[in-house]
Write a structure and sequence with these properties.
It is a multi-pass membrane protein. It is found in: Membrane. By secondary structure, the chain is mainly alpha-helical. The protein is 77% helix and 0% strand. It is built from 17 helices and no strands. The radius of gyration is 18 Å and the shape is globular. It starts with 21 loop residues before the first helix and ends with a helix.
Length: 335
């Protein structure tokens, strides 16, 4: 699966030394441009809330565009990769849906977050993977095939896992209608993704000509979601910004570290452990923002909006650090 947030590098291993291929340079440009775009959108929402706040009902449609673009970038190879290493993919899936929801609940408890913010942080943790994780795994010289497989499965299973986990962990803070949430995820995530896959299968020859534009269209949709979310709670953001940022940094940072540690603990090897780090620590923040807006409040969607910016910045930095720690010869051997 390709990231809904940024253009992706080609899947599969081995990967070339960082910075030596056009795809690598395109990926680096993507993880640089996307956070800037989202920051600009958030600033616009904060400065002109009246312009964007009224579009809250359009957030699910924007998410549908993102997921449809994701489906267009998928191929049968993405699904075959799951069958090749089912137990490793299952481990990545379990780590993702155990570590991040648990961390969200723990951070909300330790920081004594308000009910809306606590529910928002937990919802981010319960979201599937997929947001830029494939790109940064590629940049880190990690196991891109594993990253794609885990992202694929976590997204497909989101209707079954995200609602009950949110109910279990966030229900103490705000009422959670898990049944309605399942329906929303099916409509805004699974159906658009499947629709994109079908279109790719039927008209792949024509779709291939415009695939390069799909991730950038997704980036614009994510930026629009952030602008709407920030505008909807612009007043509250001024007093809660530091708290939300602290929660997001802790959530993302601990997820990256624990994901990598899980891979090393289970002896997956360095490339696969790097993939695990990003598949655990990076979330589909667009989905979290959409669900929070629809089921909780604009304030509850703030953690997802901030996460959308931060996890791209931290992911790029961690990937660069990992790539530099891998000598060229070792990188070729690991591939």
């Amino acid at each position: 699966m390709r990231s809904p947030d940024t253009p992706t590098a080609p899947t599969g291993t081995p990967t070339p030394p960082a910075g030596t291929s056009p795809a690598d340079r395109a990926a680096r440009r993507a993880v640089t441009v996307f956070p800037v775009l989202v920051i600009a959108a958030g600033a616009a929402g904060l400065a002109f809330p009246g312009t964007f706040a009224g579009y809250g009902t359009d957030v699910p449609y924007l998410l549908g565009v993102i997921m449809f673009c994701m489906g267009l970038t998928m191929s049968l190879e993405d699904f075959k990769g799951v069958a090749r290493r089912p137990w490793v993919v299952l481990l990545g899936l379990a780590a993702h849906y155990v570590i991040m929801p648990g961390l969200g609940w723990l951070i909300a408890h330790l920081l004594h977050l308000s009910p809306a913010l606590a529910a928002g942080v937990i919802l981010v943790g319960c979201a599937p993977s997929g947001t830029a994780s494939n790109v940064v795994t590629y940049l880190a010289r990690g196991d891109v095939a594993l990253s794609v497989s885990v992202a694929t499965v976590s997204t497909v299973l989101a209707p079954l896992l995200t609602p009950p986990l949110t109910l279990l962990l966030a229900g103490q803070y705000l009422p959670v209608d898990a049944g309605s949430m399942v329906t929303d995820i099916l409509k805004t995530v699974l159906l658009p993704v499947l629709g994109g896959v079908v279109v790719r299968l039927v008209a792949g020859r024509y779709i291939g000509r415009v695939l390069g534009a799909m991730p950038w269209l997704s980036s614009l949709a994510i930026a629009a979601i952030v602008a709407v979310v920030v505008a909807g709670s612009a007043h509250a953001l001024k007093s809660a910004a530091l708290t939300v940022l602290l929660a997001v940094v802790l959530h993302n940072g601990c997820g990256l570290a624990l994901g990598y540690g899980c891979g090393r603990l289970t002896r997956l090897g360095r490339p696969a452990s790097r993939a695990m780090a990003f598949e655990v620590g990076m979330q589909n923040s667009g989905l979290a923002a959409s669900l929070a807006t629809a089921h909780f409040s604009p304030l509850a969607a703030l953690p997802a909006a901030v996460f959308s910016v931060w996890h791209n910045i931290s992911g790029a930095l961690v990937a660069a650090w990992m790539a530099r720690r891998t000598p060229r010869a070792a990188a070729a051997a690991e591939g």
